[in-house]
Specification:
By secondary structure, the protein is mainly alpha-helical. The protein contains five helices and no strands. The chain has one domain: Cytochrome Bc1 Complex, Chain D, domain 2 (Orthogonal Bundle), CATH 1.10.760. Helix 1 runs parallel beside helix 4 and helix 1 packs antiparallel against helix 5. The mean pLDDT is 84. Bound molecules: heme C. The site of heme C has 18 residues, from helix 2 and helix 4.
């Protein structure tokens, strides 16, 4: 199986898992990117074309490259982030789409 196909399948599986059986819609990484540029870029470097984030905040590419990276776990984290990160009151769909976008940064 090609790398890209495998990636898309894993993303979809991860997203469906994160959202639970009630939400069958596939994750929308494009929407996730819009959200990331709007809500996350103040601290995180969210894309290759962004030159500056906040010190000591992991870039989204670095998060995607972590061993064991799991979009479903990221989506869950985003709905209930730990104290160093603000709770942005993201909806399930927003968190899943953001996680799907972060997954696209995996090299
Ligand atoms: C005010 C600054 C700030 C904003 C805005 C912010 N983050 Fe973060 N984020 C952080 C910091 C700091 C960490 C590192 C937390 C830690 O190491 O405990 C982090 C960590 C993370 C992680 C890694 C969590 C893990 O498993 O270690 C993810 C994923 C993440 N942020 C996603 C996002 C997304 C998506 C947004 C936009 C909706 C966002 N962040 C907005 C500061 C921010």
């Amino acid at each position: 199986m090609s790398k890209i196909l495998r990636f898309i399948m894993l993303t979809l599986i991860g997203a469906a898992h994160a959202a639970g059986p009630a939400l069958a819609a596939p994750a929308d990484a494009g929407h996730g990117e819009v959200l990331a540029r709007h809500w996350c870029a103040a601290c995180h470097i969210v894309a290759d074309d962004q030159s500056q984030g906040t010190d000591n905040v992991p870039t989204f590419a670095a998060i995607a490259a972590r061993p064991g990276f799991d979009p479903a776990a990221i989506a869950r984290f985003l709905r209930d982030p730990h104290p160093k990160m603000p709770d942005m009151q993201l909806s399930t769909i927003e968190s899943v789409n953001l996680a799907a976008y972060i997954a696209t940064l995996k090299k």
